[in-house]
Design brief:
CATH topology: Rossmann fold
CATH architecture: 3-Layer(aba) Sandwich
Shape: globular
Strand order of the largest sheet: 3-7-2-8-9
Largest sheet: 5 strands, parallel
Radius of gyration: 20 Å
Number of helices: 16
Structural class: alpha/beta
CATH class: Alpha Beta
CATH superfamily: P-loop containing nucleotide triphosphate hydrolases
Order of helices and strands: EEHEHHEHEEEHEHHEHHHHHHHHH
Number of domains: 1
Length: 340
């Protein structure tokens, strides 16, 4: 599908929340909407915002650096699902007078699940945008934020199972969940935020997607419901060179969504693992609707003291996002290319 909406009506909104909370599912469903192009984890917005966020005219240095950035990201993005078209940044055809307008041009070049061109709404999702809420509000003053959360025990179980470039350690991931939830609790009640629970998304898709559409001021469309896009992903997944990446990010979309899967943690985590998760996460998770079930006397403070290295690792994992935001572009690009 190729639409050519006027860039004047373009608006970016964001999906926040810790990874493994259903954001890939939500992004895929939203891409079925005729007015939305949903971007799956290409966090270009914050990558260049500090240096170029206040530009008022075209900037060749930004275009060159953005091309290098997109080429690096493309290495782990299957082109038949997400084609970033980095080559289009140096054609000389880009016209923009602000950083937001530049991003609009970049996003319009993306082919996302065969969606091409400009759309009135771009939904840009990345877990670590959670720690850039204030910066994104400044970048897009009219932006709205879909804050996606999931039962911390289910999230930690998912991370235990899927460890591509990540730790599957229960205690580390419990600390990580706590830090994400604490950050979310600092802004989730703001008027430009909508809290969405993964459990509601899978158990009552119509109601949840309707509320999201209302929040974004667009009409709900029936084709948001169903497995058409999921089947497309499933049929393409086998031949993609980036097989490991796809299996980590898209494999769960191959199967129908069942609400029963949301409580697998009750049988697939041990009693001790559940006690650890409850002790570390329940304080921040309680206000999000997640209730601890263990009666253990394990305390957060004792777990923190005995597992301080894991807490420091989790703390660094999230705090480095704010540090990276301010680093020179050349240093960030070098770091990105070394990681991929």
């Amino acid at each position: 599908m190729n639409l050519d909406h006027s860039t004047n009506s373009f608006q970016t909104h964001y999906i926040l929340g810790i990874g493994r909370s259903g954001s890939t599912l939500l992004t895929t469903l939203l891409n079925a909407h005729s007015q939305i192009k949903a971007i799956p984890e290409v966090p270009i917005a914050t990558f260049f915002a500090y240096k170029y966020g206040k530009i008022k005219s075209e900037n060749s240095e930004l275009e060159k650096n953005a091309k290098e950035y997109l080429e690096a990201i493309q290495k782990i993005r299957p082109k038949h699902l997400v084609n970033l078209h980095a080559e289009k940044l140096l054609t000389g055809d880009l016209k923009y007078n602000s950083y937001s307008a530049f991003l609009n041009k970049v996003f319009s070049n993306f082919d996302i699940l065969e969606k091409q061109g400009n759309y009135p709404i771009v939904v840009d999702k990345n877990p670590y945008y959670t720690f850039h809420y204030d910066a994104l509000c400044k970048l897009s003053p009219n932006a709205k934020f879909i804050v996606l959360v999931r039962d911390y025990r289910a999230n930690i179980l998912s991370r235990k199972k899927k460890t591509l470039n990540k730790s599957g350690n229960i205690i580390f991931n419990a600390f990580l969940c706590r830090l994400f939830f604490k950050e979310i609790n600092s802004f989730r009640t703001n008027k430009n935020c909508l809290l969405v629970r993964y459990e509601d998304l899978v158990s009552n898709q119509v109601e949840t997607l309707t509320s999201i559409c209302q929040f974004l001021n667009i009409e709900f469309e029936q084709n948001l419901i169903g497995s058409g896009i999921q089947k497309d992903i499933s049929s393409n997944i086998e031949s993609e060179k980036s097989e490991k990446f796809i299996k980590e990010h898209f494999s769960e979309l191959k199967n129908p969504v069942h609400s029963g899967n949301t409580e697998k943690w009750k049988t697939e985590l041990s009693v001790e693992e559940i006690e650890i998760c409850d002790a570390i996460c329940s304080k921040e998770a309680f206000t999000l609707g997640y209730i601890p079930i263990s009666s253990s006397q394990k305390s957060f403070n004792s777990l923190l003291i005995r597992n301080l290295p894991k807490f420091i690792k989790a703390y660094y994992n999230v705090k480095k996002e704010r540090i990276l935001y301010y680093l020179p572009i050349g240093m960030k690009l070098k770091r990105l290319n070394q990681k991929l």
